[in-house]
Design a protein that fits this description.
Blueprint: E1 8-11, H1 14-18, E2 26-31, H2 44-47, H3 60-77, E3 78-88, E4 91-93, E5 96-98, H4 101-104, E6 110-118, E7 134-141, H5 155-158, E8 163-165, H6 181-191, E9 198-201, H7 208-215, E10 219-224, H8 227-238, H9 244-251, H10 260-265, H11 282-291
Parallel strand pairs: 1-10, 2-3, 2-9, 6-8, 9-10
Antiparallel strand pairs: 3-7, 4-5, 6-7
Helix pairs in contact: 6-7, 6-9
This protein binds S-adenosylmethionine.
Length: 292
């Protein structure tokens, strides 16, 4: 029964707990899993991201296999037409690039979008490569029947674009928390003003996703292997009011003065690809004028 899991923060191994949750019972998921950063061999900043109660150091093949299994369990428990937002990053080991797409394409999910999370801070300050200041967020979709695309987002959410500039949270004792704006943006964009949905974070850490869900009027399910982080998340959920201002600040960014359709109807600028009076795309005209 899904009621056994609702509004609970559960201590345990994600894959084991997910297997107990019924099919097609959860509306939305958001998570940032451990990244398998093999912290022992990395720079001082990455060294600090060490989780209590688990190592982040699996052979890469085993790590990816585990993530495929976790993602497929999540696919099973999410309702048809539901989504899962999976935060990860590109990593390198001894010159080999590991891209999240390497394992995401092996799961059952339809990959709906890749969002760039511009964190405006580099995790490793050496110059072997240009400083990596971004992470990725994959919007994964479970089709409802044959519809592989799903429902359209309202303009006020879609206008936030596929690049999210959100600095990391620094007032949280967890080594790698979400800024609360991030799960808030996802939950509000997906459900808009609807309430009472079920949101899961299967690696919930300090409980940021759960607090955002609660403030926005939804139910949550959290899983983490560390009892210490679980206790912290439970405390945070009790004191959720303290985080309402940050959630409201994010909500205030979801607005639109005029929709695309309204602009089009009034003949106003709708983007680079507007056509001129002769029906030629604007870009083509710019190209032509360069040749003159
Ligand atoms: C990137 S953190 C998530 C942080 C979270 N988004 C927040 O806002 O605090 C990943 C979490 O996964 C947990 N974890 C690592 N391995 C796990 C496993 N096998 N099962 C459950 N949790 C695990 C860690 O304890 C850590 O809290």
């Amino acid at each position: 029964m899904i009621n056994d899991f609702i509004d609970k923060v559960i201590c345990g191994n994600t894959l084991d707990i997910l297997k107990k949750i019924p099919d097609n019972s959860v509306d939305l998921g958001i998570t940032s899993p451990p990244y398998n950063k093999k912290e022992d061999n990395k720079g001082w900043l990455v060294d600090k991201v060490v989780y209590k109660g688990t190592s982040d150091n699996l052979p890469e093949k085993e790590y990816q296999q585990n993530q495929i299994e976790v993602l497929n369990e999540l696919y099973r428990i999410i309702k048809p037409g539901g989504s899962f937002f999976y935060n990860h990053k590109i990593r390198w080991e001894k010159g080999v690039m590991y891209h999240p797409m390497d394992w995401l394409r092996k799961t059952k999910w339809v990959i709906k979008q890749e969002i760039i999370w511009d964190r405006m801070i580099a995790a490793n300050l050496r110059g072997w490569r240009f400083w990596q200041i971004e992470e990725r967020i994959y919007w994964l979709y479970k089709p409802d029947g044959k519809n592989l695309i799903g429902k359209e987002l309202k303009s006020k959410h879609a206008l936030l674009t596929s690049i999210w500039r959100l600095p990391p949270e620094n007032k949280n004792p967890h080594p790698a928390p979400f800024p609360i704006e991030l799960p808030t943006r996802i939950i509000y964009s997906i459900f808009d003003e609807e309430k009472g949905k079920i949101v899961i974070d299967p690696y919930c850490g300090s409980g940021t996703t759960l607090v955002a869900a609660k403030i926005l009027g939804h139910h949550y399910i959290g899983i983490d292997i560390s009892q210490e982080y679980i206790n912290f998340a439970i405390e945070r959920l009790k004191n959720y009011q303290a985080e309402i201002p940050k959630v409201q600040e994010e909500l205030s960014k979801h607005f639109v003065k005029k929709t695309f359709k309204e602009r089009k109807e009034k003949g106003e600028f709708v983007g680079k690809y507007r056509k001129n009076r002769n029906g030629q795309p604007l870009l083509e005209i710019i190209e032509n004028s360069k040749k003159d």
